[in-house]
Amino acid sequence: MEKTLKPMSGYLTLVICLILFVAAVYFFISGVDQSVTFVVLAMLCFLLSCFFLKGLMIIQPNHSRVLNFFGKYVGTVKDNGLFFINPLYSSQKMSLRSENLQGQTLKVNDKMGNPIEIAVVMVWKVGDTYKAAFDVERYSDFVRMQSEAAVRHLAMSFPYDNLEDDHAPITLREGGDKINSILEQELTDRLSKAGIVIQEARISHLAYASEIAGAMLQRQQATAIVAARTKIVEGAVGMVDLALKKLSEENIVELDDERKAAMVSNLMVVLCGEKAATPILNAGTLYN
């Protein structure tokens, strides 16, 4: 469990180190020609100065130091500035800044078995220094590997689109923020054991694999054409029905079943045709 330490300021210790270093130089110069005692004092002052200097540490903004005492976790220093700690402590630098991870493009199968290409970009930072330092071997490598595993699991949990699964509530292509939220939660669950906080995760690349991209594009185009034709036919039938009702209600012309069939046929050709219809004048009747 992470424990935050508040060490003492290091400025006083820095001054003491400078005084000891000056004293060491003075005793050494004085003892060269006079006494061995001065040389011993010079060495003692120099060693003390080095010992205290080892306890000084500078922590930059958004950085921290994880402290250990002969293999035992002591705590984490997250304040910024110059501090003095027990010189026997060993320290490990750890950044608390947000970092970007642009995942590589992965080729996986979606829920329906179609090969797709997917990649994500995520923003993360260290939230628990104890877990990041001691619960995993190298937390940066852990983040990279687990993010790839999370992306693969996400891709296999949902279809790319609803062409094959009309009842799919969520698809990778149209899921939007909901898919991103699921991805963030998946990453949080996997990386929490390393003390990593996920700030944002988004799908940066999503497409069918190259070997089926052309076929799937044709399928999407065919589906769009069928849907458009269905709308056209539904509209044309409504217009024909309205025209027949208006002609009948206003007594513009009396049409028997054969003439109605001919009129419906002509109107459907005009309304559903891809090109403009070419009119042909009939000077006779349907019966001659």
UniProtKB/TrEMBL annotation:
GO terms for cellular component: membrane. The keyword Transmembrane helix applies. InterPro entries: Band_7, Band_7/SPFH_dom_sf. It is a single-pass membrane protein. Residues 54-220 form the Band domain. It is found in: Membrane. The chain crosses the membrane at residues 12-29, 35-59. Its main location: membrane. Keywords: Membrane, Transmembrane, Transmembrane helix. PANTHER family: BAND 7 DOMAIN-CONTAINING PROTEIN, MEMBRANE PROTEIN-RELATED. This is SPFH domain / Band 7 family protein. It comes from Chryseobacterium ureilyticum.
